[in-house]
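User: I need a structural model of Isopentenyl-diphosphate Delta-isomerase from Pantoea eucrina for a docking pre-check later this week. Nothing fancy, just the predicted structure tokens so I can convert them on my end. Input:
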Amino acid sequence: MPAIEVILVDHLDRPTGKMEKLEVHEKGLLHRAVTVYVFNSRHELLLQRRASNKYHCGGLWSNTCCGHPYPQESTRDAAERRLREEMGMQLELTPVFELSYNLPLSNGLTEHEYGHVFFAISDDEPALNPEEADAWCYRSVEQVQHEMQHAPEQFTPWFLHTFPRIPTTFGTFRLTA
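Assistant: Understood. Predicted structure tokens for Isopentenyl-diphosphate Delta-isomerase:
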């Protein structure tokens, strides 16, 4: 399998180069990422449990999907690609906000990302790629908040970091299914 390169960026998301994905996470370098949150018409969030064989955070619950744009790929195209690859869904995505974080992972890797967050609305059930995710569920924002308070170890670090912005942001996102 060929090495996957990601886009290195500065704190303003300006490209500064490219590097192999695992090396970037080993060195903790800032790179571009995409995150997708899919809601259904009942305002519930589609979560995935990462496949246990993932190189980091396997078996943890997270947002609908995430990933990295390839060099020369737009963030929207990357988000749509990852949604298809991980969840088997093809949806129209809306860019909602951007954020940056630097989070250590349990296996010595670091998620130092400039993230582009997208929302979508769908009542479709996903068709999981078993190499990416092994379970899914829809949960209300309140249920996710409760579960994060009582069992944060069940969730990925970036989801714990990003999710608190979702309830207020979702309130301004127009719901159409």
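Before docking, keep this in mind: The helical segments are 21-27, 75-87, 141-150, 157-162, 166-172.
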